[in-house]
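Model: Ready when you are.
Researcher: Fold this.
Model:
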Amino acid sequence: MSILIVDDKIFDIVLYNLGRYQDCPYFMPMGADCETTFKRLHAAMHKSYAERYKNASSVPKYKPYAAYSAIKEIPPLISVCQLLKYMQCINYQIETNKPTFYEKDAIKRLNDLITQLKNGILRSMPNYENALWTEIVQNKSNEVI
């Protein structure tokens, strides 16, 4: 797998939009330490990149993620599906051989958020909402119901 450095603006967009979805059913944001978690994820991503390409001249000098304090413009509002995709992208870029305790915790929190978003998206689908829970499906016409 190749590792990419995700633009800081993506981190800004994710953080900004996480606050928007805190009232959505099935979604429980991380709380006040959300910014710290994403700073740790950002550091773990850079660490993963440096470990993977340690002999390459393309390894950029690490600059810590400033999060909200550095936002110069309001990030765009995105759909919950786009938010999920950005979070999955961030998660995919983290592959460090020696994660710290705090990096492991941040990765776990990100995975928990991804799972919550997936569940929320699934539960918002009409076919899922209308699917039977314990009743046996009666389908004599062999059509998909």
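Researcher: Now this one.
Model:
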Amino acid sequence: MTLPANARPPRRRIGIGRHGAALAVAAALGYAATRLHAVPDLRLHFALFGSLHALSVAASLLPRPRAAAIALVMAAAGLLNAATAGFALTIGPTPRLLGVPAAIAMSAAVGAAVYALLLRATWIEYLRLREGAALVFACALTTSIAARWAPAGGDGLWRLSLAWWLTFSAILCYLDRRARRASC
């Protein structure tokens, strides 16, 4: 079935069970990469985790995006995560001025904002500014709380990423369910 040129593409929805399963697989892959020290650089670590989360979102969308679109969004998510982590945690002045917890919160917030904009521009059109702001705040808060108990090094980075993933995904699934109920 092809759509007319002026028709809107079908609204995508998130299969919550499918997203949870894809997120679990992505978390296991990220944990394995962390434990095997397969990703030695901080920016590459966050690039891998950004791409894995984008893949878990793409795997849960119905109707499913094309493979080329999935690859592009995965690459964009990876690059955005690497740039955010690189700026906030290593290049930017935040760790020296405000301390590491503030740098982690800032990195989580900026990453959530940019990633939400990417998803809004590509797949999830119902994500609005107010909802995006709630996502940003929740991701920053959750990651800051997780940072208090995360050990330094690879396992700590995995735990911070997992806390961010779960927060972002839970809110995204809630927003999807709410949008579906509103359209009925």
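Researcher: Key takeaway?
Model: The chain has a mean pLDDT of 81.
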